[in-house]
Amino acid sequence: MAGILPPTVAVHRAYRLSTYHVPGLPVIRIGHRPRWRGRAPEGDIVLLSACNPGGRLYADGWNRRMMHALAQYLRDVPHALGEGRLGRWSEPLYAVQVPLARGLRLARLFRQNAVVVLHGARRARLVYLA
Asked: Do residues 85 and 30 lie in contact, with contact meaning Cβ atoms separated by under 8 Å?
């Protein structure tokens, strides 16, 4: 079982260079303010995945099953499927409209190292779980 790891310099750099794409949301970059069309949504939007726990690569089939399991936890909250991208690499994620505390609980449950958080017009930020 992969545990939650503190970020290495390379991992931190990869998160910061990635772009995050979700239908209906502006392109998201860590440290940048989202360019909302109209008013920014109220509350937190947490971008989280269930793939590759602990930053370790898992088989595509396993990752699909974990994303399906995460989707079951999200049935009662607004969410949309998107992806994080860096060069040729991409990983699916959900943009979930929940308080940050609940997003962090879900990320821990699926052994993720970090989540991306949007809150209104503030800069997108990365929250590590380790």
From this structure: no
Q: Which two tokens stand for residue 109?
A: 């449950």
3-class SS of residue 34: coil
**Structure tokens that stand for 84 in this block:** 């994080």
Q: Sheet harboring 114-119: ordered strands across?
A: 19-21, 79-86, 89-96, 44-48, 114-119, 125-128
Residue 47 CA from chain centroid, whole number: 3
Note the pTM of the prediction, 2 decimals: 0.93
- Report yes or no: 49 and 92 within 8 Å, Cβ to Cβ: yes
| Percent above pLDDT 90 for the chain | 82
Give one DSSP letter per residue of 42-87, joined into a string: SSEEEEE--SSGGG----HHHHHHHHHHHHHHTTTS-EEEEEEEET
For 108, the token pair is: 């821990």
CA distance 114 to 126: 7
Would you say residue 68 has pLDDT above 60? yes
Per-residue pLDDT band at 63 (split at 50, 70, 90): very high
